Amino acid sequence: MSEKFQQAFAYHKAGKLTQAKNLYDEILAQEPENAEVWDFLGLLFYQINDFSQAETCIKKAIQLNPRMYYIENLARVYLDSENYVLAANLLEDIAKNSPNYENYFNLAMAYKGKQEWEKAKEAYYKSLEINPNGYESYFNLAYLALNDNDPSEAINCYKKALEINPQDWESVYFLSLAQMQMKDYKNGLKSFESRLCRQSAILSQEKIYPELMKTKPLWQGEDLKDKILFTYYEAGYGDMLMLYRFMPKLTQMAKKVIIKPQKELAPLFRENSYGAEIIEKYEYDKEIYFDYHIPFLSIPYVLGYQAEDMFIHHDDGYLRANSDKVDYYKQNFCRNNKFKIGIKWQGNTHYDKQRVINAEDFYPLFELKNTQFYSFQTLDGSEEFEKLHAKTDIINLGETFKNFSDTAGAIENMDLIISNDTSLVHLAGAMKKACWVLLPYVYNWRWHTDLSKCDWYDSVKIYRQTHHGDWANVFCGVKQDLETKFNLTG
Hints:
This protein has helices at residues 3-13, 17-30, 35-47, 51-64, 68-80, 84-97, 101-113, 117-130, 135-147, 151-164, 169-181, 185-192, 196-208, 210-215, 237-243, 247-253, 266-271, 299-302, 323-333, 385-389, 404-411, 423-430, 472-486; strands at 228-232, 256-260, 277-278, 292-295, 339-344, 371-375, 395-396, 416-420, 435-439, 460-464. The protein is an alpha/beta fold and 490 residues long. The strands form two sheets. It has a six-stranded parallel sheet with strand order 7-6-5-8-9-10, sandwiched between helices. Strands 3-2-1-4 form a four-stranded parallel sheet, sandwiched between helices.
């Protein structure tokens, strides 16, 4: 190893990548067939996510000297650049010639990226034969189990991962989702306390009320008869709407409950306060006093709910629409004798894009007689409305919604809501309005494993893909049910 190469390597190791690259370039100008330097230069580009340059350099190294180490580096480039086909092609040979844990794990990741699930499982298990302590393999096997809608197997894998690495909060969090999908709320809610959004919710309130939040304790089930409880939003709208079912009980337990929801939910909750004080998201200067505080999603855990206890039902629903808004939507949009169907196809895509439905998938429903469709779509996805409007005289209500109180007023005028898995379903369910939720093949934990009924809402019926990405058959079933149950023949 030349002195210049030693210096370049030292720079590289120290993270001084510009200096390292300059020296690598100088060496290659004098020694263009130095395979080792080409490989190191490729790894440098790999570190800065310049995968194209990394591929070029490492390929040059392989051309000069086809060392297995160089080929493994090229496979990593393909894997991290999500070129799973090329990664798998290389890793199949690499794993055969050098059967170690990392190579089989990477091969499994490539198969997973290609959605070749069975091959991925086989490779993960091969990696565990070599290294039984490879908790990453158990973690990914749990993912594949959930992908097969097998939360029981996922639980087994997450537990094995945690035996090896008890501090892995991600395994604890995803274990909680699998446990809750199995309706094991006793253990699931406890594990769910590991969620990052819980800590983020607490920290966000500490910025607004630093003196109070740092001096007042988290509520852990203490008697609230003479106490004030402050609870605040976390996660999505749907979570808040679903768990708002506990508000009547909470306000009966406490002297006073103060709740801070997202600003879009505040008007609706204020109209359904059950005696709680609803404060707005941005009321930084509002003076409040409380004895205990708790993130909203932790309430069922502290209340000690298990299994069926979670599904508190209310005979007439637990959220009601503002009568003035109900009348507004009736007078301005719903004065017809047709069967009124509100639809939505997209929610928050930050977490789960599989839940998104193409607006065009609703086309077959427009063939049904005596129907009037209404779009409840807001924000992202609203641009798809024009596609539907070109097919039928659908009315755009989504553009009139400023908050969930408006949405509730519109829902009250509908005969049926048909929606992807989004907050609209939870609002309709909480209002006890008829709603059909359309789920992807791999669906959210809250719908559990028995999809013949909805545990959370009596008025919600579940439809689910039977194959990944197949919405056509879902809509075929929806159309048939509309025809037979409501006599809406095409």
